Amino acid sequence: CNRGGNTLRSLFRQASADSDKISLLDSLIKPNRTYTEQSIVQVSLELPPEYKTFEGIKKTDFIGKLAKRKLIDRGFSNDDILKYSIGYCDTGRYSNRIIFPSYDSQGLLNFFVGRTILDDDPIRYMLPESPRKNIIPFELYINGNVPVILCEGLGDAKAIARNAIPLLEKGITEVGMKKLMLSS
């Protein structure tokens, strides 16, 4: 958003947020307020059965090679691909898609995004049939002891490259804010 600020409250003020939203933020970040894990619902989720890693791609695996080339062209290194367990699907519901898994702080899958590798595909992203309002995307890689950067999508988080949470085109929810505060 190209706005500076050291706190969420100052960012809200600079963005001319209305007083109701600032009051809600204040109620969420009061230091004497306590939250319980009970308000956070866990949903069991699995990667698509057709999910493959990029390890040992065969020369004849056209989709795997194209998917990896798309990642490299977008600035992902082999280390990034391994670190984030990025894979792909060449068949099934997520065919011709790169799969970006997201893990919670315990290392359990909490979400994934399937992004097309085809330039003419009208559906750029496919998401699982799973609620995402109770998760913090890529929570496993977040250090709650230093400032967190909230951004829109996966590419933005990759470009920031440090302690960034992609909101996946949704605003942060009250439950997500509580969970984020509990992790710090």
Question: How does this model look, in words?
Answer:
The chain is elongated. It has a five-stranded antiparallel beta sheet with strand order 1-2-3-4-5. Helix 1 (8-14) packs antiparallel against helix 2. The protein has helices at 8-14, 19-29, 62-73, 78-83, 154-160, 174-183, and strands at residues 52-53, 87-89, 97-103, 109-116, 125-126, 149-151, 164-166. The chain is built from six helices and seven strands; from the N terminus they run H-H-E-H-H-E-E-E-E-E-H-E-H. The chain is an alpha+beta fold. A hairpin with a 5-residue loop joins strand 3 (97-103) and strand 4 (109-116).
Summarize the structure.
This protein has helices at 8-14, 19-29, 62-73, 78-83, 154-160, 174-183; strands spanning 52-53, 87-89, 97-103, 109-116, 125-126, 149-151, 164-166.
Brief descriptors of the model:
alpha+beta, elongated, 29% helix, 184 residues, 6 helices, single chain, disordered N terminus
Rg over alpha carbons: 18 Å
Tell me the major beta sheet. Answer: 5 strands, antiparallel
Class based on secondary structure composition and strand pairing: alpha+beta
Strand order of the largest sheet: 1-2-3-4-5
Helix content: 25-40%
Strand content: 15-25%
Quick check: average pLDDT? Answer: 79
Unreliable stretches, pLDDT < 50, 5 or more residues?
1-5, 31-41
| Beta-strand segment tally | 7
Work out the helix count.
Answer: 6
Distance between the termini: 24 Å
Helix and strand element order: HHEHHEEEEEHEH
Describe the global form: elongated
Topology:
Blueprint: H1 8-14, H2 19-29, E1 52-53, H3 62-73, H4 78-83, E2 87-89, E3 97-103, E4 109-116, E5 125-126, E6 149-151, H5 154-160, E7 164-166, H6 174-183
Parallel strand pairs: 6-7
Antiparallel strand pairs: 1-2, 2-3, 3-4, 4-5
